[in-house]
Amino acid sequence: MTGSAPVTQLDDVRALVSALDLPATATPDELAARLSTVRRRPIQIQPYPPNIVAEARRTGEPLPYGVWVSGAATDFIFFREDTTHSHRRHIVLHEVGHIVCRHVGDDAGEADSGEPDHATITRAVKRAGGFAADQEQAAETFAYLIERHTRPNLSATGETPAARYRLLED
Q: Which of the listed ranges 20-34, 88-102, 148-162 does the model predict with the highest average pLDDT?
């Protein structure tokens, strides 16, 4: 996890995953805790705040399944609760992939509570999908490789994103 340039090459993503040396039973929360220790920067994983969900419903704007907000001292991963456990796991791993691969996240400017404020989360929601295609592919590959390592009972034959998602469903 050294360097400062964003990781986008698939072989480099594979190398990052291998270097993590995760136990086969690692959960996304355990991965985040390990990365928090290594990076000396906490990663908090939590559902979107209710006011963000309510605003999306009110405005009819689609709420991304997950976003990463890079705060002054903490990284935050927000996810939608209205999906399956397996999909939520994959969403979190995808967002962790952006962090591990050093992609550029939204700068939060944390509120006094240490949490990003409403405007910051809204900005991240609107930015979702704003990563370059190669960064999205790298984050998706990261999530897939972690899933394959920590859930070895899954078949590794998913050749398309849709096939991989079907493999990950409960």
A: 88-102
Q: How many CB atoms lie within 10 A of CB 115?
A: 18
pLDDT, one tens digit per residue, over 5-46 is 889 999 999 999 999 888 888 888 999 999 999 889 999 999
Phi-psi region of 89 (alpha: psi -120 to 50; beta: other; left: phi over 0): alpha
Q: Read off the pTM.
A: 0.82
Strand order, beta sheet including 106-107: 43-47, 75-79, 66-70, 106-107
